[in-house]
Amino acid sequence: MAKVEQAVGQAVMAPVFALDRLQAVPALIGRHEDFLIIAGLAGTARDLTALTNDGAHVYGLAGVMGAAAMMGLGLALAKPERRILVVTGDGELLMNLGALATIAVLNPPNLSIVCVDNGHYGETGYQESHTSRGVDLEKIALGCGLKVARTISREDEIAAGHRLIREGNGTAFVLLRVKPTEPPNFKRNMDPAYCRERFRAALGVA
Amino acid sequence: MDAKAETVANAVSWPDALYDLLRRSGVTQFAYVPDAGHKVLINRALADRDAQAIALTTEEEGVALLAGADLGGGRGVLLMQSSGVGNCINMLSLVKGGRFPFLMLISMRGDFGEGNPWQYPMGQAVEPVLDAMGVICLRAERPEDVAATVAAALTMVFQSGQAVAVLLTQKLIGAKKF
């Protein structure tokens, strides 16, 4: 009996890292011009700068691991009339989990967070991250008090995520589980001061 | 102004005057890790419908938050105790590398008359650490210095694009009693 329960438990609980990020990330986001975007360092910054051809509405990080979600909060509070999207990885988010608590307390309706969870630190040689070892970031987001959180690990779930990140019923959190494979090979502008000025100029706040 | 209002106005403490100065300078995001030295500013921000009080779990969140605010044309300030400076170090790469304007108000511990030996290592490291990360430190020692010091910092930050920490010293706020 115990054996059966364990088997059932594993079938239900084991995370599935099956989607291909090269297709899943663009499909989930859709029209990227709908958002002002903060992209976390490494993989997700490459996903988003490739998707937008290094667009001025994306601020892609290449350092300051753990900054992405809080930058999104500051931007969301400063620009309540715009939709703000944070796209970050599991490793980046794990480095500053408290940010989810801080964001949940304020719960800005114009902010959405997508965590592209491949269960690994791709940039440093694909070491397993905590999410491959049982840590569930959707549950953490819910535990922090975010009301809208969803895990997407199959292709037929992506459309729901596409809608969720555009809704205004409080901050939305989408955990997009993908295979641990390479993000797009895209060369972007790596000057953080230039990218700041480009972002502000495009918004008309420079 | 009637006599009663004048009495109230004269009784305005430096933290209240400081809050009004920050708001007049367009600061709307007040990010904080609670500290007794910032009690008035935090309470004023919480009660202000036109400002946002953002409670942080750790100070480095505030560094990233204010950089994000700047991307959207917003202005903010990070209110924290000196112990939190160490938590901010790597995140200050964003401020220095991105040339983000950045203002922090730091209530000091491990400083003038400190009675808790645990506070000294970080308290005494505040200025060298901030200096190493490109943050200019201004010290406020007396109540009558606070407004002028913060006014100078506001110009340095939002007009000249610098990163500035105003250190509210223990000579100003008093050493915590043990």
Key phrases:
heterodimer; A: 206 residues; alpha/beta; Rossmann fold; six-stranded parallel β-sheet; two-stranded antiparallel sheet; B: 178 residues; 6 strands; 17% strand
How is this structure best described in words?
- The complex is a heterodimer of chains A (206) and B (178).
- Chain A has helices at residues 2-13, 21-29, 43-51, 68-78, 90-94, 98-106, 137-144, 158-164, 192-203, and strands at residues 35-39, 58-60, 83-89, 111-117, 120-121, 127-128, 148-152, 172-177.
- With 206 residues, chain A is of the alpha/beta class.
- In chain A, helix 3 links the parallel strand 1 and strand 2.
- In chain A, helix 2 crosses helix 8 (158-164).
- Chain B has a single domain (14-173), classed as Thiamin diphosphate (ThDP)-binding fold, Pyr/PP domains (Rossmann fold, 3-Layer(aba) Sandwich), CATH 3.40.50.
- Chain B contains eight helices and six strands, in the order ααβαβαβαβαβαβα.
- Chain B has a six-stranded parallel β-sheet, with helices on both faces.
- Mean pLDDT of chain B is 93; it is low at 5-11.
- The interface between A and B is medium-sized, with 37 and 32 residues.
Task: Please give a quick description of this structure.
By secondary structure, chain A is an alpha/beta fold. In chain A, 40% of the residues lie in helices and 18% in strands.
CATH fold label of chain A: Rossmann fold
Order of helices and strands of chain B: HHEHEHEHEHEHEH
CATH topology of chain B, which one?
Rossmann fold
Measured on Cα atoms, how large is the radius of gyration of chain B? 16 Å
Query: Helical percent range of chain B?
Result: 40-55%
Oligomer: heterodimer
Low-confidence stretches of chain B: 5-11
Low-confidence stretches of chain A: none
Please indicate the percent range of residues of chain B in DSSP E strands (runs of 2 or more).
15-25%
- Regarding CATH, which class of chain B? Alpha Beta
- When the domains of chain B are counted, the total is 1
Major sheet summary line of chain B: 6 strands, parallel
User: Which superfamily, in CATH terms, is the homologous superfamily of chain A?
Assistant: Thiamin diphosphate (ThDP)-binding fold, Pyr/PP domains
